[in-house]
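Input record, target 12 of the design panel.
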């Protein structure tokens, strides 16, 4: 058996991810780096498929959306956006080992249900709670006072160090949208209401460890700013529409089970001061309900901040009335890597003595695998290679002629390949192959000249 019944689900997923080339600890030969991972050959495909399908659904298929691809290294932007001053997490240090922990995460499990929400507590309240409840570090040692820890990575450009050359790696992709807002209006035909999407790497100096790729130092964000005229649009309706689009993407496009999803509305205290309403779409990860995707009505806060800081007008002029105003925005923001982790968790299926990933075929890294029944029979190999080479340009096909057929099926099951084609001795007689379905493990004979048609019907 390839998996161990005694491991918990998350351990099994982490092991599978490494074993099959989805996710590796980064720089493992040098001892790795906490909260940092690389995506292997199969993982890179899954990640790319999720990213592309997001882009297709939210940018390419909609008339009211355009996309951007903006810089990682930014100057002044982060001061204006408030990130340099406020983008921080509370942390405590183990006074003996000097390991750092997110204070809010550490006390979460001590809060009895029905009592205060962690999201509503400020630094002082977290500090008092730790003292009153005599909370120790996970190693049993005393903890420092709660301090604030800025999440932005800062660096310098050019040869001279100092304030002038200080820059930041972006902590979110959204600010690249706001700083380009005017240029998009001036260079395209967009009209309110419209949205701008941006996908790319963001960087946060996260100290929480142990949740695999859920929270990493580098991650890929897919963010949208949907701009509208607050006088002519109903923000509550727009918010509802966006929530529906997000939910549809997760359940219908990515095929995630509805019972593992829930909406959580932020409380007044938890919500940022500029936000009028915020929801998290939470997924039930093996380590608990956690934010997958956030959506916030951010009013005109960001554009206003950048206007103040840059001295440039970021107003919109209504072409019919001539009215000049700052648009408001609704921001749906998701991490592509969190979507990736969710698809692994949700598709992970153990059935009798079988383990497979029930990935939606549209995002599965490989769509089809081709095998010769035996790896040492020239006629079988030749025939199978012909099928494989014919499919490869269009279907993301995988080839395997090692080991026995059972091992090959197991390997494809574990990376979620929906169909496996085997060329056997009957193929040489009647030109048909065995096609095996990942989810049912059922096999059927299909004529070689009908394989493409078969796949087209199944994979659409
Ligand atoms: P969290 O509360 O989990 O730290 P957040 O509320 O700070 O997240 P946002 O700033 O709203 O997150 O970012 C939008 C999305 O980006 C999140 O919903 C999540 O999917 C993703 N994200 C944020 N931080 C990370 C991270 N360190 N690693 C991976 N994904 C992240």
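The sequence produced for target 12 reads:
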């Amino acid at each position: 058996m390839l998996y161990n019944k005694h491991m918990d689900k998350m351990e099994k997923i982490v092991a599978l991810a490494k074993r099959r080339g989805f996710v590796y600890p980064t720089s493992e030969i040098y001892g790795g780096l906490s909260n940092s991972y690389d995506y292997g050959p199969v993982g890179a495909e899954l990640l790319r498929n999720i990213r592309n399908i997001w882009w297709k659904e939210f940018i390419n298929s909609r008339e009211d959306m355009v996309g951007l691809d903006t810089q990682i290294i930014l100057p002044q932007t982060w001061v204006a956006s408030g990130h340099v001053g406020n983008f921080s997490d509370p942390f405590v240090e183990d006074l003996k080992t000097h390991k750092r922990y997110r204070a809010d995460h550490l006390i979460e499990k001590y809060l009895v249900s029905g009592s205060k929400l962690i999201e509503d507590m400020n630094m002082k309240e977290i500090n008092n709670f730790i003292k009153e409840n005599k909370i120790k570090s996970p190693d049993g040692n005393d903890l420092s006072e709660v301090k604030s820890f800025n999440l932005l990575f800062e660096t310098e450009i050019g040869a001279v160090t100092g304030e002038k050359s200080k820059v930041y790696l972006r902590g979110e992709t959204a600010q690249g949208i706001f700083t380009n807002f005017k240029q998009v209006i001036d260079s395209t035909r967009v009209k309110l209401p419209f949205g701008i999407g941006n996908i790319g790497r963001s960087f946060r100096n996260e100290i929480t460890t142990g949740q695999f790729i859920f929270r990493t130092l580098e991650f890929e964000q897919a963010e949208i700013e949907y701009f509208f005229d607050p006088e002519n649009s109903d923000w509550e309706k727009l918010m509802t529409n966006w929530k529906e689009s997000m939910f549809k993407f997760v359940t219908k496009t990515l095929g995630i089970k509805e019972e593992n999803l829930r909406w959580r509305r932020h409380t007044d205290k938890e919500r940022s001061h500029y936000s009028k309403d915020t929801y998290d779409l939470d997924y039930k990860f093996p380590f608990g309900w956690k934010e997958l995707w956030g959506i916030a009505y951010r009013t005109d806060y960001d554009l206003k901040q950048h206007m103040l800081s840059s001295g440039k007008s970021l107003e919109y002029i209504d072409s019919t009335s001539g009215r000049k105003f700052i648009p408001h925005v609704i921001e749906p923001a998701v991490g592509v890597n969190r979507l990736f982790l969710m698809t692994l968790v949700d598709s992970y299926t153990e059935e009798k003595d079988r383990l497979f990933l029930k990935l939606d075929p549209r995002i599965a890294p490989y769509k089809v695998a081709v095998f010769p029944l035996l790896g040492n029979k020239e006629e079988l190999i030749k025939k199978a290679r012909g099928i494989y080479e014919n499919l490869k340009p269009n279907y993301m096909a995988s080839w395997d002629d090692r080991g026995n057929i059972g091992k090959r099926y197991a390997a494809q099951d574990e990376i979620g390949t929906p169909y496996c084609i085997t060329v056997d001795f009957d193929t040489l007689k009647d030109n048909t192959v065995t096609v095996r379905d990942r989810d049912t493990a059922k096999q059927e004979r299909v004529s070689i000249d009908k394989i493409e048609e078969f796949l087209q019907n199944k994979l659409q």
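The longest strand covers residues 288-299.
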